Amino acid sequence: MKKFDNLFLVGCVLMATLLSSCGGSGNKEEESAKEEEAQAMEMKEEERVSPLEKSVGKVGDKTLSVQYGAPSVNGRQIWGNLESYGEVWRTGANEATFVEISDDVTVEGKPLPAGKYSIFTVPMKEGDWTVIFNSEWNLEHGHYQYKEEHDVLRVNVTPEWLDENQEVLKITVEDPGLVIRWEKLRLPIAVQ
């Protein structure tokens, strides 16, 4: 009998919901759906382990903005362990990191047209790292969707190893262009 009561109650709630939605206008339904979607997105942002960060700045008269998921070290060995040497890294967490460039620039002396690009990095145990600008900038799962055939530019950048630890990944627009810091790494990417 209790199961029947519960089913009856659920049926009544569903019927009341249906009846109230039939009497309203389509605009109210659309507004309600948009509100629910906004709340879901807000909850999703709150659930992120690696917060979404953005840095905006100027290099000369050119505006650069970069958006990325910012993971923390959390006592882990990053280079050669969490992020393997010789393999493409999404240069952040979650979705692909991307940069938007207002005007044509040069990166490490090579031309890059204005636009939006995902940034990938290939860490190396020794020597220069490869920094990749890829035309598919809106990748939901970062390096899992990366396709080399969409690379627009690849440059070599010399990493710097510091004594101090950068706990949370930080990518900034500053001299000499874009600077990536995480753990003991400082990777300055020259942009002009």
UniProtKB/TrEMBL annotation:
It holds the Pfam family DUF2911. Residues 27-56 have a biased composition (Basic and acidic residues). Residues 22-56 are annotated as: Disordered. It comes from the Bacteria. This is DUF2911 domain-containing protein. It comes from Echinicola rosea. The lineage of its organism: Bacteria, Pseudomonadati, Bacteroidota, Cytophagia, Cytophagales.
